[in-house]
Write a structure and sequence with these properties.
β11, α12 and β12 form a beta-alpha-beta unit. By secondary structure, this protein is α/β, with parallel strands linked by helices. The two termini are about 35 Å apart. The protein contains 20 helices and 18 strands. It is globular and about 90 Å long. The chain has three domains: about 70 residues, no CATH class; about 120 residues, Alpha-Beta Complex (Aspartate Aminotransferase, domain 1); about 250 residues, Type I PLP-dependent aspartate aminotransferase-like (Major domain) (Aspartate Aminotransferase, domain 2), CATH 3.40.640. The longest helix is centred in the first third of the chain and has 21 residues. Bound molecules: pyridoxal-5'-phosphate. The site of pyridoxal-5'-phosphate has 16 residues, from α8 and β11.
């Protein structure tokens, strides 16, 4: 009987020419179905040879397995999720969301030809950065600008073009690591610069820089300590003074801002974050910052500053290797255009809209969503509305938080460790995974970034808590 099950397994041909097989072939194509059928039959053969007494699967069951095999293969790996972590600019969840106008501009650039490097009037070759350069100059007060793949590339290219084989002086208090893969000492080494650390972790004085300057110096670099703060007995050299020291010795001051918001966040009721305009006004020769952090645009890195230096950076052959594509350039231009009207920025620039949401507004969302979550959990967890604190993320204002609100859950009757993990897993298993955070044994959804409330609510019926 067992030998029969193995022997009576259909052939690949029989499987794919069955009615169910034909339907799958029409949908996914012959080649994929053959591949699926071979894999499914091999697995079935293996199963039956290990458990000879088992019954063999029939034709419809085998084709259903083929369908599942194809579905697994074809399922998108990069998928939408709900970011309810409370971190607005979450690097692992893709940072800034494109505003509507940027999505439209990007879509257009994806679908058809554009004048990326083409002067329409003169029918001559153009320069891709020219589409955004005047906007960036206007918004930062810089003489010139270059755009590259991300801020890590901006820092790398600046150092490579301006200070290769030279020393770059940095305060020991600013040897930043961002997310493990970006460390100032490492980027410096890969750009062929020699890092010259001065001062101490907590205090650096003008004389420390003065003492290190010499023939070998290529630049002084200031790095915004974007993901930590040094507090207590501290001293840093004010930017304007640092610029004066650099200029007296004929070397540029490079200021890596990291975030670089283009407007004063205090105008929007948020904590102050240094702007490129301030850095330029304070004497920096080159300022670098990210496009997808507070700026709220696509992933890119902006290099702005003195025209002669920016031209050297632009002409460096590495610029070609680090340039951005037409899609992100289109999105960046659309985002920069939003800054022309600061009065509408908080409603139109998605990142700023999320950052400026008040606790009251988020609380009312929480009060609407909480009963639906409670019902979906059907008594398996205690659910409550909670006041919490969101973070900006991506290294911006690391110690400042924003008053927010959300939903806290704790599995009924079991305050043991791992219970909140099970809840987190159940929410991640939803059709559009919901990502929250765990705090002191509770699973928390911070609703600051929830804009598609209907979409979240609609899928809660699929919530399944194990056991
Ligand atoms: C974020 C950051 C970077 C890296 O920028 P990416 O856009 O992630 O490449 C570099 N320097 C500082 C200070 C930063 O905050």
């Amino acid at each position: 009987m067992a030998r029969g099950a193995l022997a009576s397994l259909p052939s690949v041909d029989r499987l794919i020419s069955s009615p169910e097989g034909a339907a799958l072939s029409a949908r996914h194509g012959h080649a994929l179905l053959v591949e699926a059928a071979r894999a499914v039959l091999a697995e079935e053969r293996e199963r039956l040879s290990k458990a000879p007494a088992a019954a063999g699967a029939d034709l419809p069951a085998l084709t259903a397995k083929c369908a599942a095999w194809i579905e697994t293969l074809m399922r998108a790996s990069l998928r939408p999720v709900f970011n309810l972590t409370g971190t607005v600019l979450h690097t692992n969840l893709g940072r800034a969301l494109y505003p509507k106008t940027a999505i439209e501009a990007a879509t257009q650039a994806m679908a058809g030809p554009v004048n990326l490097e083409y002067e329409i009037e003169g029918a001559a070759r153009g320069e891709r950065d020219s589409h955004v350069e005047s906007w960036i100059r206007r918004l930062t007060g810089a003489e010139a600008a270059v755009v590259v793949n991300n801020n890590a590339a901006a820092v790398y290219l600046t150092l490579y073009a301006l200070a290769r084989r030279k020393e770059v002086i940095v305060s020991r208090g600013e040897l930043v690591e961002i997310g493990g893969s970006f460390r100032i000492p490492d980027i410096m080494a890969s750009a062929g610069c020699k890092l010259r650390e001065v001062g101490t972790t907590n205090r650096t004085h003008p004389k420390d820089f003065e003492g290190a300057l010499g023939k070998a110096t290529g630049a002084i670099m200031k790095v915004h300590t974007s993901n930590y703060s040094v507090q207590g007995f501290t001293a840093t050299v004010p930017e304007a003074e640092l610029a004066a020291i650099a200029h007296k010795h004929g070397v540029p001051l490079i200021n890596d801002l990291g975030c670089g918001m283009l407007v004063n966040l205090e105008d929007f009721g948020l904590p102050h974050e240094p702007t490129p305009r301030e850095a330029i006004a304070n004497g920096a020769d080159i300022v670098t910052f990210s496009g997808d952090k507070l700026l709220g645009g696509p992933q890119c890195g902006l290099i702005v500053g003195r025209k002669d230096l920016v031209e050297r950076i632009r002409k460096n052959p590495m610029k070609r290797a680090l340039r951005i594509d037409k899609v992100r350039l289109a999105a960046l231009e659309a985002v920069l255009r939003l800054y022309a009207n600061p009065e509408r920025l908080a409603s139109e620039l998605t990142t700023l809209r999320l950052l400026t949401r008040s606790r009251e507004e988020i609380l009312s969302v929480a009060q609407r969503v909480m009963p639906v979550v409670e019902k979906a959990l059907a008594g398996q967890a205690a659910v409550r509305v909670l006041e919490c604190a969101s973070q900006i993320g991506s290294g911006a204002l690391p110690v400042e938080t924003l008053p927010s609100a959300g939903i806290a859950m704790i599995p009924a009757g079991k305050r043991r460790s791992g219970a909140a993990d099970a809840l987190a897993r159940a929410f991640r298993a939803l059709p559009v995974p919901v990502i929250g955070r765990i705090n002191e044994g509770e699973f928390i959804l911070d609703l600051r970034c929830l804009e598609d409330e209907a979409g979240l609510v609609a899928q809660l019926a699929h919530l399944r808590l194990p056991g």
